[in-house]
């Protein structure tokens, strides 16, 4: 697989997911994971790597689905411009 220049748009909307405070998560940055919005290792050879994050509080967060956010792993509304 050759290196990808742009991430694959998994969906043009954020993923609303429940997270647990203090637990480490890995957000898919390449858009190829079958376990969106989380990494399943599909990025291998793409030039992308997952973004690790640990929420400070439990609850619902909105993770970027278009993979073009400037505030990874969180949605910043960029999907509305794609």
From TrEMBL:
> In the UniProt record, which is one GO cellular component term?
cytoplasm
Please provide the record's keywords in A-Z order: 2Fe-2S, Iron, Iron-sulfur, Metal-binding
Name of this protein: Zinc finger CDGSH-type domain-containing protein
The Iron-binding zinc finger CDGSH type domain covers 12-49, 50-81
Question: Is Hydrolase tagged as a keyword?
Answer: no
- Record-level Gene Ontology MF annotations: 2 iron, 2 sulfur cluster binding; metal ion binding
Please verify whether the record's keywords include Nucleotide-binding: no
Q: What is the lineage of its organism?
A: Bacteria, Pseudomonadati, Pseudomonadota, Betaproteobacteria, Rhodocyclales
